[in-house]
Automatic annotation (TrEMBL):
Keywords, alphabetical: Carboxypeptidase, Cell shape, Cell wall biogenesis/degradation, Hydrolase, Peptidoglycan synthesis, Protease, Signal
Keyword Cell wall biogenesis/degradation: yes
One Pfam family cited in the UniProt record for this chain: Peptidase_S11
Active site: S100, K103, S157
Source organism phylogeny: Bacteria, Bacillati, Bacillota, Clostridia, Lachnospirales
Peptidase S11 D-alanyl-D-alanine carboxypeptidase A N-terminal domain ranges (all copies): 65-304
Record PANTHER family: D-ALANYL-D-ALANINE CARBOXYPEPTIDASE, D-ALANYL-D-ALANINE CARBOXYPEPTIDASE DACB
InterPro entries (UniProt xref): Beta-lactam/transpept-like, Peptidase_S11, Peptidase_S11_N
Listed GO biological process terms: cell wall organization; peptidoglycan biosynthetic process; proteolysis; regulation of cell shape
Family under the similarity heading: Belongs to the peptidase S11 family.
The protein's name: D-alanyl-D-alanine carboxypeptidase (Penicillin-binding protein 5/6)
Organism field: Lacrimispora xylanisolvens
Signal peptide (from-to): 1-23
Keyword Metal-binding tagged: no
Record: residues binding substrate: K273
Amino acid sequence: MKRKVFVTSGCIILSALFLTGCAGLHKLDNPYEFSERTALYQSASVAGKSETFAHDLCVVSKDTADSDSSVTAEAAAVFDLSDNNVIFAKNPFEKLYPASITKTMTALLAVKYGDLSDEVTVTKDAVIKESGASLCGIKPGDKLTMEQLLYGLMIPSGNDAGVAIAVNMAGSVDQFAQMMNDEAKKLGATGTHFVNPHGLSDEDHYTTAYDLYLIFNEALKYPEFRKIIGTAEYKTSYQGGDGKTVNETWKGTNWYMTGERKTPDGLTVLGGKTGTTLSAGSCLIMGSSDSSKNEYISVVLKARDHAGLYDNMSNILNKIVE
């Protein structure tokens, strides 16, 4: 009798599951739809819907790069901040290594949650021995303000400055990486995961062109960030670990700002961040404005080399003024 009751109950439960739609779990065979990703960022203009958190953000509705052979980088995009329009997008959601563009998030956290007047004593954590790593030259025992470290981070792309900022703000690189990931989530950067403040390659350290737009767009809200990225050369003095004054001149790496590449006619570069590693290729994110003071964010990821990076960037920037 008990066996009959068990079998009958099991049949009823299975029937209920199929009738209520649980059999739809088979849809996991094809779980991703482009529309599902963009649904998070839909406009609030639809009648009867409340305003979404992304009502003032650019929404990528399609990949617009299919017919453009001039953009050879793995991913690229241009976002119009004046009307939240996506001018161009190629592989905007592909997860890629960001190299030193990572430092945009590090700088954002510093200006958003830190005190730029704080004096920081550089620790041994900031000693980076990886071959080819870009450094601003600080050493353990040196004393700099957070503001100076931010210039050392963003102008010569100092990985050592990134670690100094991270340790000062969070106590360790790992704890700072958690802050970075928490901030990414707040901004809707769902395709991003950071493990360090500088972007030296790690298989678990990645982002997307669209997520970088979200991060850079947030950073542009802070005048301090705009001032720093708009600086092509920075001279400073600070106290060395031996008590003597250290004089430094840090030069930028953006060819549009250093004069090595001409900015497309009709545009002015506001500033940005370059990045290069063997895994990431050559990368650049930056802000620009046109003659009407409309502002744009453009990003190129994984170009073959520096020359190719600026060829790609100029090609997508020209789409603004076409």
